[in-house]
Amino acid sequence: MAAARYRRFLKLCEEWPVDETRRGRDLGAFLRQRVVQAFKEGENTQIQDPEGCDQIYESLNRLNGNYYREKYPRLQDTSFTEITADEYQMVLATDTLKQMDEIKKGMWKRLKDKFNTKSPQDEVKE
Length: 126
Description:
Order of helices and strands: HHHHHHHH
Number of strands: 0
GO biological process, one term: mitochondrial respiratory chain complex III assembly
Oligomer: single chain
Protein name: Mitochondrial nucleoid factor 1
Structural class: mainly alpha
Pfam families: UQCC2_CBP6
Subcellular location: Mitochondrion matrix, Mitochondrion nucleoid
Keywords: Mitochondrion, Mitochondrion nucleoid, Transit peptide
Number of helices: 8
Distance between the termini: 51 Å
Helix content: 55-70%
Number of domains: 2
């Protein structure tokens, strides 16, 4: 039975999209990591809580299949800010967030970082 659960989770991982714009923060990538951790021995992994495993799978499968989006349709495609989902996706991209962090830094911090002569190897030794 563990082999069937493992195959179901693998199929779910294949279907779940990975958003490359959210490096290190993507749910699809996190899901893949967790499946690898949970099924270390592949199909031969012994599952301690089969009912809990099945519940997790069903929950993730409902999310992936847009069950709740269809059950509770939205009246508009925007939020109270009038920003669309595509615009949110662009704003929440990892590169954009890094740029925003750079802008938030004060002038003194930017100058200090720019002229900092320590190499990354020196910081490791400290």
